[in-house]
Amino acid sequence: MNERPVRIVLDASAVLAFCRESIHVGEVIAEVADEDCVVGVPVMCLAEASRGAADADRLDLLVNHPAVEVLTVDPLSWRALAVVYDTVGRLDAACALLAAVDSGGYVLTGQPGLYAGLAGGGPIIVF
C-alpha cells in the first residue's frame, strides 16, 4: 500500500480516456505525481474499462505507473457503497466516488452526468 495521499480518482471513463492516450488524463497524472501524491484507480473502474475495449497494454501501463494506486473498497464500507451506488446507478462510478470522498480527493470523469444526483455537484472534475 502506498503512503502518499490520493488526490484524484479516475473513474472508468477516465481510464478509457487514458487508454486512448488522452493528454488531459496524462497531464493530471503528471501533476499529481509532481505533488508527491497518487492517482487512485478503483479495481471496479479497471474492470469496467476493460469491457469497453480498452487497450490492455495501456491498462497495464496505468496500473504499473509509479503515481497510480489501484484501490479496493473496504468491506466495512459496504453500506456507504450501497447508498452511493443507489445515487449514481453504476457500481464502478460508486467505487470511484466513495474512494474520492474517503481520501478527500476528486473524481476525474468524462461522464459528469453520472454524478448529477450529488448534492452540490460532488467532488467531480471533468476532463
Compact summary:
With 127 residues, this protein is of the alpha/beta class. It contains six helices and five strands, in the order βααβααβααββ.
Characterization of the model:
Helix content is 48%, strand content 17%. The protein is an alpha/beta fold. The chain has a single domain, classed as 5'-nuclease (Rossmann fold), CATH 3.40.50. A 5-stranded parallel sheet has the order 3-2-1-4-5. Helix 5 (78-88) crosses helix 6 (91-103). The longest helix has 13 residues, at 91-103. The radius of gyration is 13 Å and the shape is globular. The chain starts with 5 loop residues before the first strand and ends with a strand. The model has no long low-confidence stretch (mean pLDDT 95).
CATH domain fold name? Rossmann fold
CATH architectural arrangement: 3-Layer(aba) Sandwich
- CATH class term: Alpha Beta
- Distance between the amino and carboxyl termini: 27 Å
CATH superfamily: 5'-nuclease
Count of distinct structural domains: 1
Shape: globular
- Beta fraction of the residues? 15-25%
Number of strands: 5
Strand order of the largest sheet: 3-2-1-4-5
Number of separate helices: 6
What percent of the residues sit in helical stretches (DSSP H or I)? 40-55%
Q: What would you report as the Rg, rounded to the nearest angstrom?
A: 13 Å
Q: Identify the quaternary structure here.
A: single chain
Q: What is the string of helix and strand elements? A: EHHEHHEHHEE
Largest sheet: 5 strands, parallel
